[in-house]
Amino acid sequence: MASSDPVPAEGNVDGTQTIRRAAAMLRRIGQSNSQGVGLSTLCDALQLSRSTTHRILKCLVDEGLVRHETDRRRYVVGRLTYELGLAVTPDALEIARWRPVVDRVARRTGVTSYLMSRNGIEATCVLKTEGNSVIRVIPVDVGQRRFLGVGAGSTALLAALDPETSSRIMETVAPLLRDYPGLNEEVMRELVDDARRTGFVVSRSNVVQDVIGIGMAIPEPGGTPSLALSIAALNSQTNDRLIDGWKHIIMQEIQEALS
Question: What's the predicted TM-score (pTM) here?
Answer without folding.
Answer: 0.70
